[in-house]
Each structure stands twice: as structure tokens, then as C-alpha cells.
Write a structure and sequence with these properties.
Length: 379
């Protein structure tokens, strides 16, 4: 067991920190306030390899490992959770689905553009009436010659409007049949693909979230990922990796909130001494630091298993559940440590607090993670 960052992870962390300082920090409150999705930023991130982290170099990616992905995503999220969420959806959902289940032609066609950040990816599973219970999805694909006609609505889709390439899970068989769902690639510009309402969110406001509408959307047989009927099983495998992403996102937000609160607690004086000297504040900092260490260990354990190709369903759910809840607790404590200033947009605590809540909801709520963990323990 080696608990230290590798030399490569140290370099990645420093590179992302420098990038964030220059290209994210000066603009992030404006993006947040006005819900601006900074699409040009992702091309710059692509130049650093951050949009195709897990993609092998032969397809234009950085060819890095899962633990290195966790390092990069945690660092970005410690600066701005919105950018972390978009990076996560692009890398570990859309791109990784094509990398894992695409054929050679699909990989050559789509991965280089996605890895460059010039093309943005989306992954559409959730519908207005089926979130946790995704198996009951209503969007259908009906076969017509060599094509399929998609009809229905997807909800809460990250990059639902701006994505160039979308992996979409739709029903091709009977309701509740786990072999009744298929994954398709749909390209932007398809006349049957439209973006609906853009959500006005509590946090993660620079990450675009929209409804997606399929109206007689024609896609060819060539756009099927894997085989007809494999979509649900593919989605569950992709979510194992996706949960490591959200764990990293939560970890990054928790770290950002903690570091800001630690600095402030040492500087802010009340009753003639820094507030960090009061046990009530010092204990909060001790709790925050301990939860971050624990979350980090769980997240890197899941990433290590995933990298080795071992089953990580339980570990990725544990990492996601723990770090998401910890991110909410830690950012709440950070607001408290900042006092009245923590309640304003002049200080960073309130944004961490708003952004953190998504982690307990996206890619399976905390309750669903507990169901997954319990199932793994009890089986
Ligand atoms: C900002 C954002 C970005 C997102 N991006 C994407 C994306 O890119 N692609 C995509 O496909 N989806 C995306 N989602 C959707 C997200 O994955 C779902 O919101 C999530 O899975 C929960 O589904 P739901 O919102 O329908 O809640 P529901 O499933 O309706 O759940 C409501 C509540 O009931 C609880 N609950 C449900 N079932 C059970 C049960 N069996 N036992 C106990 N409690 C239960 C839940 O935990 C929750 O507290 C995104 C969501 C958000 C907010």
C-alpha cells in the first residue's frame, strides 16, 4: 500500500491549480451569478489533457489512470464545483461509455474530438418521471429498416443543449426488462434532437443542465453502443466509474471549503484572539480534516480497484455516499466559521455550500448508494 501521491499526481495537481488560478478563479463568480456555461474553457482544458484523461493516447487522450483522474477532478472541484461536474459528466459518463462499449469505428470517430475538448459530451439516462428508478424509462427507440426512431424526454442532462455528442439510454424492449434498454450515440444537429428548458439551479450554476427532447429522432444501426438490449447493464457499469467522479467532486468541494475556513479561522479575531483558538471552532476544523482524509482513502481505494479492472460497485458507492455527505457537512461548517461573511458572495464559503448539495443527488442519491452498498454486503 502506498498512500502518497505519485510524482505524476503531484504534477497533475500543480498543473490544475495553476490553470484554475489563471482561467477559472477570475471569472467563476460571474459564471455562477449569470449561469454562464463557459464552453471555451473546456477547449483549453482539452489542451491540458483534462477532457480525455482516461482515453488512450492512440485516440487523442491523455491515457492516464483512474487515480490520476481523481487527482485532477478533485483539484478542479476544489476551485469550482461547476467545472468539476461538467468535466466529470464529459469524461466519465459520455466519453467513457464510448471508450468502454464502442466499437473501433465509433472510438476512432468520436474519441479524438471529445478528448480535445473541442466537442462536448453528454450522457442521458434520467427522465422527468424516472430518476432513481431508471429502469422504468419511457423514451423509446423503434426499429425502421437500418434506422431507429427515438421519441421521449430526458431530464437534468448535463450539457443537454451544448453537447456535440450524446450517449442516450432508451427503451427498445419491454418495461422493467433489464435487457429492454439500448445505448445510442446521437450527434448534435440531428433534426429530431432538441434541448428543452435550462434549469435555474441552487448551485453548480456554470454547469449547463437542460431537458432533452427526442421527436422522431432518426439514428442509424451504426450508432448503437454494443448490442441491442445491453444498455442498462452498460449504464450500471458506467455509473460505477461515475460514482468515483462524484466522490472526487465532493472531495474537491470539501477540500476547498476546508482550506478557506482554516485560513479564515487563523486570521479572524474575536475576543482578542484568532477564532481558531476557540475549541468550538478548532473541533470543527478537526472534524473537517478527518472527514476529508477518510473520503480521500475511500475514493482512491475505489479508483485503484477500477484501474485494476476489479469489481468496485460497493467501494465506489461507499466513496460517493461518504464524500457527498461529508462535502455538505464540511461546507456547512465552513459557512459557520466565516460567520456573517460566510453568508455573502464576497467570500467563497457560500458557493461551496450551494455546490456541495448536488453531490448527494447526482448519479444516484445517497439513499440509492445505501441500497447499492447494502445489496453488495447482503448478497
Ligand atoms: C445538476 C444535475 C445534473 C445531472 N446530470 C445528469 C446527467 O448528465 N445525466 C443524467 O442522466 N442524469 C443527470 N442528473 C439526474 C440525477 O442523476 C437524478 O436527479 C438522480 O438520479 C435522482 O433522480 P430524481 O431527481 O428523479 O429523484 P427521485 O428518484 O425522484 O428521488 C426523490 C427522493 O426519493 C428518494 N428515493 C427514491 N427511490 C428510493 C428508494 N428506493 N429508497 C429510498 N429512497 C428513495 C431519493 O433518494 C430522493 O431523496 C442530474 C441531476 C442534477 C440535479
Amino acid at each position: 500500500m502506498n498512500f502518497a501521491y505519485s510524482e505524476n499526481q503531484q504534477m497533475i495537481a500543480q498543473m490544475v491549480k495553476d490553470f484554475g488560478r489563471k482561467h477559472i478563479q477570475p471569472h467563476m463568480m460571474e459564471w455562477d451569478e449569470n449561469q454562464i456555461f463557459p464552453i471555451g474553457l473546456f477547449e483549453k482544458m482539452g489542451e491540458l489533457g483534462l477532457m480525455g484523461i482516461l482515453v488512450p493516447q492512440e485516440y487523442g487522450g491523455a491515457g492516464l489512470s483512474y487515480p490520476e483522474y481523481v487527482t485532477a477532478l478533485t483539484e478542479i472541484s476544489s476551485i469550482d464545483g461547476s467545472i468539476g461536474l461538467s468535466m466529470a459528466a464529459h469524461n466519465s459518463l459520455c466519453t467513457n461509455h464510448i471508450l468502454t462499449f464502442g466499437n473501433e469505428h465509433q472510438k476512432q470517430k468520436y474519441l479524438p474530438g471529445l478528448a480535445s475538448g473541442k466537442q462536448i459530451g453528454a450522457w442521458a439516462l434520467t427522465e422527468p418521471n424516472t430518476g432513481s428508478d431508471a429502469m422504468r424509462m419511457k423514451t423509446t427507440a423503434i426499429k425502421e429498416g437500418n434506422n431507429w426512431i427515438l421519441n421521449g424526454n430526458k431530464q437534468w442532462i448535463t450539457h443537454g443543449k451544448s453537447a456535440n455528442i450524446m450517449v442516450v439510454l432508451v427503451r427498445t424492449g419491454d418495461l422493467l426488462d433489464s435487457k429492454g434498454i439500448t445505448a445510442f450515440i446521437v450527434e448534435r444537429g440531428n433534426p429530431g434532437l432538441k434541448a428543452g428548458k435550462k434549469e435555474n439551479k441552487l448551485g453548480m450554476r456554470a454547469s449547463e443542465t437542460t431537458e432533452v427532447i427526442f421527436e422522431d429522432c432518426k439514428v442509424s444501426d451504426e450508432n448503437i453502443l454494443g448490442e441491442v438490449g445491453e444498455g442498462f447493464i452498460q449504464a450500471m457499469k458506467i455509473l460505477d466509474g461515475g460514482r468515483i467522479s462524484i466522490a472526487s467532486l465532493g472531495l474537491g468541494i470539501a477540500k476547498g471549503a476546508y482550506q478557506a475556513a482554516l485560513k479564515y479561522a487563523k486570521e479572524r479575531e474575536q475576543f482578542g484572539k484568532p477564532i481558531s483558538k476557540f475549541q468550538g471552532i478548532a473541533f470543527k476544523l478537526a472534524d473537517m480534516a478527518t472527514k476529508i482524509q477518510a473520503g480521500e482513502l475511500l475514493t482512491y481505494l475505489a479508483a485503484d480497484l477500477k484501474q485494476k479492472g476489479l469489481n468496485c460497485t460497493r467501494q465506489s458507492a461507499e466513496a460517493k455516499y461518504f464524500t457527498s455527505e461529508a462535502a455538505v457537512e464540511i461546507s456547512t461548517d465552513a459557512v459557520q466559521i466565516f460567520g456573517g461573511y460566510g453568508y455573502t458572495k464576497d467570500y467563497p464559503a457560500e458557493k461551496y455550500y450551494r455546490d456541495s448539495k448536488l453531490c448527494t443527488i447526482g448519479e444516484g442519491t445517497s439513499e440509492i448508494q445505501k441500497i447499492v452498498i447494502a445489496r453488495e454486503i447482503l448478497q
